[in-house]
Amino acid sequence: MASETNFINQLICDNQRDEAFKKLLDLYQERLYWHIRKLVITHENADDVLQNTFIRIYKSLPNFSQKSALYTWMHKIAYNESLRFLEQNKNKYHISIDDVNKKYLDNLMEDTFFEGNELQVKLQRTLSELPERQRQIFNMKYYDDLKFREISEILDIKEGTLKTSYYNTVKHIENNILNIENFSDKEVN
Amino acid sequence: MKTSKNINSDLNLHELNNENLKKKHSEELGLHVPEDYFAKSKSEILSKVLVKQESKIIPMYRKRSTWIVAASIVLILGITVYKPFSVLNFNDSPTVVVDSVVNTSTEKVVVTDSPAVYSKDSQTDVVLTKESGSISTSSNVKSVENDIVVESLFMEENEINESVNNYMLEDI
What we know:
heterodimer; A: mainly alpha; 10 helices; B: 2 domains; transcription (chain A); WH-like_DNA-bd_sf (chain A)
């Protein structure tokens, strides 16, 4: 934790800021990209949001109060930037926070950097059927490997609620995938 | 040399390796990124951030203090140059005007040669004469002579003749 404090001090200090920021990019760029990508779906959008996120992080660093961990704070910025992007571009990309579920799979299929096989498409379809908040919780826990405490800080939801939501989602996905696989097996037989 | 994983553990961060992250997303979700995307993205972000930092311009109109200082300077200069409530003083008038006043008042003193005749205006003139007397003391005698000459222009010819005769007779 002392190292994190030192690192944050470097990020705030004018002389060391640029070097520390390069290190910050090395550490978090990829993780934040994947977090953003699952929210805005296409690579092109994720690229835009990632850049905006890091520019905002750079600007906001002097105001970082250190109430939460650096990683959680950055994740929250990335999450908010993604939501802002979706809101701003709802007319352009035909997706918004509200109808992201309806368009989720369509936009994913249009993305040139999506090459899902049958099972991956099935998983994506199952995820797209989930309520938006439930899908975000699942993604953050399963794919971004965030702790419930961290997700709770980002989404401002109680840990207990998050756990319940996550285990329900896992069960739902397992059932769906198994049903689909069983159905496929029956069809083959 | 410290690896990324070592730095992460130093910073008490997530142990999830970036490679694993990429693998998980591509194998399970079918999501891919262009080759060398993260390296390119990093340099792009850095260029944007550093350029923005270097060319950080603080517009003058956003600084309230600048406006206050500028307004104060203009106000001070304005008051110094233009005095809307100041009364015109004879001392501030050009020298020619002062001279004429001095001459006029002197003229009255010399010609009338009697304080009883002074009007209110002529008293003011005398005061002015006295005040400006310090400036023109050396030329007082000369100005009196001039005044006589000038005054003589407004005298009747027979009066002049009479006074000349008197002076000449006295001289003889």
